[in-house]
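[User] Could I get a sequence and structure tokens?

[Assistant]
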Amino acid sequence: MKHRSWLQGLILVLCAWGSSANAELTISQVRPDRLQADPAKRERVTVGFRLGEPAKALLQIFDGRDLLIREIASNATLVKAAGLSVNP
């Protein structure tokens, strides 16, 4: 399952996969906690989301030219309400 959204000119792609092949996995309520972050201030952006079942997740961040600039993966299975933090 994939979900795409924008963060000030960036494309966020959230992918998730569950352990059960029979269950339909859904991703919903994907939203960053802010639309801008200042790297000089070491500000983070947390992307919150809900999963239809516990699953692993991968967040990919692309620039306006569709070049992958960051990839963040969960190390373990996430619960239904989750989030991943990004350092700009």
About this structure: The CA atoms of residues 31 and 48 lie 5 Å apart. The chain has a mean pLDDT of 76. The longest strand covers residues 10-18. The chain has no helices and seven strands.
